Amino acid sequence: MHVDTGHNFPETIQFRDAIINKLGVKLIVGSVQESIDDGRVAEEKGKNATRNALQITTLLDAIESNKIDCAIGGGRRDEEKARAKERFFSHRDDFGQWDPKNQRPELWNIFNGRHFEGEHFRAFPISNWTEMDVWNYIKRENIAIPSLYFAHEREVVWRQDTWIPNSEFLVLEDHEEVVTKKIRFRTLGDITITGGDESEADTLEKIATEVAGMRNTERGNRSDDKRSESAMEDRKRQGYF
Amino acid sequence: MLDNNQLLRFTTAGSVDDGKSTLIGRLLYDSKSIFEDQLEAITNTSKKRGHEGVDLALFTDGLRDEREQGITIDVAYRYFTTPKRKFIIADTPGHIQYTRNMVTGASTANVAIILIDARHGVIEQTKRHAFIASLLQIPHIIVCVNKMDLVDFSEKAYNNIVAQFEEIASKMLVKDIRFIPISALLGDNVVNKSKNMDWYQDAPMLHVLETMHISSDTNKVDARFPVQTVLRPQSNEFRDYRGYAGRIASGVFRTGDEVTIMPSGFTSKIKSIDTLDESLKEAFVPMSISMTLEDDIDIGRGDMIVRSNNKPEASQDIEVMLCWLNNTAAKPRAKYTIKHTSNSQKAIIKEVIYKIDVNSLNRNNEDKELLMNDISKVRIRTTKPLMVDSYRENRITGSIILVDDTTNETVAAGMIV
């Protein structure tokens, strides 16, 4: 399943479609635009408006209508402080909510995936991996990844201490200037909230070397995490990935 | 992707003010595992709260309530890597629900770090920590005598505490105990060797963690393969393939080995051992594989394939050291779902044999009520046999959880005696 905000990097969608074609599997798309058109959610207002939080409703609607009882994701505990509290099998109630203070204990490798109808699980098989583990694994198994992770030339704007990509959704402030830089993305979300780093790392070897020397966290350039100290926890409680 | 000797999991145990969070903060800070933006965030929070300097303890609190109330509610996991090893820390809170959290963190740990305040020595809580570490059979214990700066780095004070701890440990089953005098606050003997304690000749804590031999901690003797699922591909290439897939719980399997399927008791020989990429001559714990046999036998999820000359016990009556993890007390004679490897059955707690007072370590034969955080020896009866080993010999085939069918919550965890 892909929750499509409509604010995507074009490369993300190309990569998604290529994978689906190669594997010959069925893709379920939950569309945020449709949720807006149906009046399920309303666009945020103001200068830094994004569709990030709107995805929660779309995701939960798609889980419900497709009767999904376990959504498997690539979330990792080392990504973010609220995620450090996650279980491998993480329970969501019938409102799709996470209750971090009342989680099922997980011991040894015995997992409890039992739930009532209407509830579901989020499963995070690579919870204990670090960013470095991911890159080493991609390198060892030669796994295809979107081109956005490699350093490339791109039009960007300096905003909130990071390089935000230029796109049809970006409204420029008077003092802001679009420049072309060689950048790469460490993490990918909507094109409106994902900041890039200046980088020369255009091969897996160079990325691994760069990641090993990083002095900032992986999601440090994600403005969605920076809205408040508990931005991730608050969204996760509501049903975010 | 990492071999077992490269990855070390440890859990930390200490009372409220023993400096546990400071120790973890120090370890991460001195090994340069804290990122600049994380440091900036906790520096700002420290200032906002009016703390002097940076409160490294803030680094481990992930939830809003934890930061606001200054308490840790739930186990948090931390990761750091040195050139020698990757580490996973299960940071278990010392305040509420302590037993539940420490048991959870300890269940997968190679090492338990037990902190003792040098000023107070071994206290009741220390006994509880040591007891849980031994109950969960954590293979290695490192006792860190912390706050040595507050006792003038005295060798005598340290030796006293070592003697106190050795006395309580002598009553428990602990394979490997080491002692290190440290000051988490100042960094003595955490990552860097102390300049204040010439009398301590051994290595600082990080070095001990980096060089500890852990590959012998897994059971390589008893071949146990709990079947998770049966693979029957619907493709021409694999028309007759019938593979039993799962993760090897312990021991080694080789093609040609004579195996017994439990609980049915049928025997066969291993025809092939397959992975996604290749077929293997042998496979061992903790590999995930698919196994085919020479004979067609009815095998499904919950069955266990073992070597015929070394079988676990198949039993419907098991004795378990049980830790109750739920707010709702155990209901006498109520049915629970017991989960053991890939096997689930209905079960009842037939008898509470005794309860352990985790502070005094005395047995209580009168009080039979199982409340949150209680540890007791119980007798459990299951509807169908489980294939069990004792927890002491096999952490995977010797452990169970109980699930309450009315709430679906995990209410207890047990170690088979």
Can you walk through the features of this model?
The complex is a heterodimer of chains A (241) and B (417). Chain A has 241 residues and is α/β, with parallel strands linked by helices. Chain A has helices at 10-23, 32-37, 55-65, 131-141, 204-212, 231-238; strands at 2-4, 29-31, 70-72, 89-92, 120-123, 152-159, 162-165, 179-184, 197-198. Chain A has a domain at 131-212. Helices cover 24% and strands 15% of the residues of chain A. In chain A, helix 4 (131-141) packs antiparallel against helix 5. With 417 residues, chain B is of the alpha+beta class. Chain B is globular, with a radius of gyration of 24 Å. Chain B has seven helices and 23 strands. Chains A and B meet through helix 4 of A and helix 2, helix 3, strand 2, helix 4 and strand 18 of B.
> What about the largest sheet of chain B?
8 strands, antiparallel
With strands numbered from the N-terminus, the spatial order across the biggest sheet of chain A is: 7-6-8-9
Q: In CATH, what is the homologous superfamily of the largest domain in chain B? A: P-loop containing nucleotide triphosphate hydrolases
> Based on helices, strands and strand pairing, what is the structural class of chain B?
alpha+beta
Whole-angstrom Rg of chain B: 24 Å
Order of helices and strands of chain B: EHHHEEHEHEHEHEEEEEEEEEEEEEEEEE
First-residue to last-residue Cα separation of chain B: 33 Å
Helical region count of chain B? 7
- What about the largest sheet of chain A? 4 strands, antiparallel
Shape type of chain B: globular
